[in-house]
Amino acid sequence: xxxxxxxxxxxxxxxxxxxxxxxxxxxxxxxxxxxxxxxxxxxxxxxxxxxxxxxxxxxxxxxxxxxxxxxxxxxxxxxxxxxxxxxxxxxxxxxxxxxxxxxxxxxxxxxxxxxxxxxxxxxxxxxxxxxxxxxxxxxxxxxxxxxxxxxxxxxxxxxxxxxxxxxxxxxxxxxxxxxxxxxxxxxxxxxxxxxxxxxxxxxxxxxxxxxxxxxxxxxxxxxxxxxxxxxxxxxxxxxxxxxxxxxxxxxxxxxxxxxxxxxxxxxxxxxxxx
Length: 274
What we know:
By secondary structure, the chain is of the alpha/beta class. It is 35% helix and 14% strand. It has nine helices and eight strands. Helix 8 crosses helix 9. The radius of gyration is 17 Å and the shape is globular.
């Protein structure tokens, strides 16, 4: 996929926008050259709606799973439910899943259970995971180091875990997603990982509708603003915008390998999960 001329937004919660705004957000991004979009679920009960949305667009895919904020809803049988959703060609990853010890909206043991069971499923299916991590670096690394997850493939999205964690994740072959935080004037702790980030382990994302980059900070984020993120990354890396778009696009299709098969626009959602 080296022919891409614009960036891919590897993490945008379009399901959090009103339905009429989702289409406008995609159109506005495409007009700026954005070539693809990954929509991560935060709970299983939104999986069918997200899949149906993805099937209306050839350039939109999704990750399906349960966010740590909703980990207390994770229950027996959810692994099988998630497995059936992931059989859909538009579902290219497991997630967004992970740990969030900043808000602690779900008990930590519930977060760890949901994380481990989703990671185990991802390995079983040969799919990558989209990982959320906030104020849980040591606990996250403890899980990463477990023998059961030696074969895990992952995007640690909107990475802000610091230099030491970034170095270990990179050594383990994981990808780091860079969001609008790299444009924040005081976010040196986010930018410090860029010099050690290999060219083939980097993704760009908006995390729509959160974390809008400068000069849109304080406003709702949207996929079109991934252009500003890619531009800032290009400056930080001393590369051209075109090269950053080409490379991060290739990284996207390498990690989210199911997206390579660009399904037919307008195709109805598969019935395997119904």
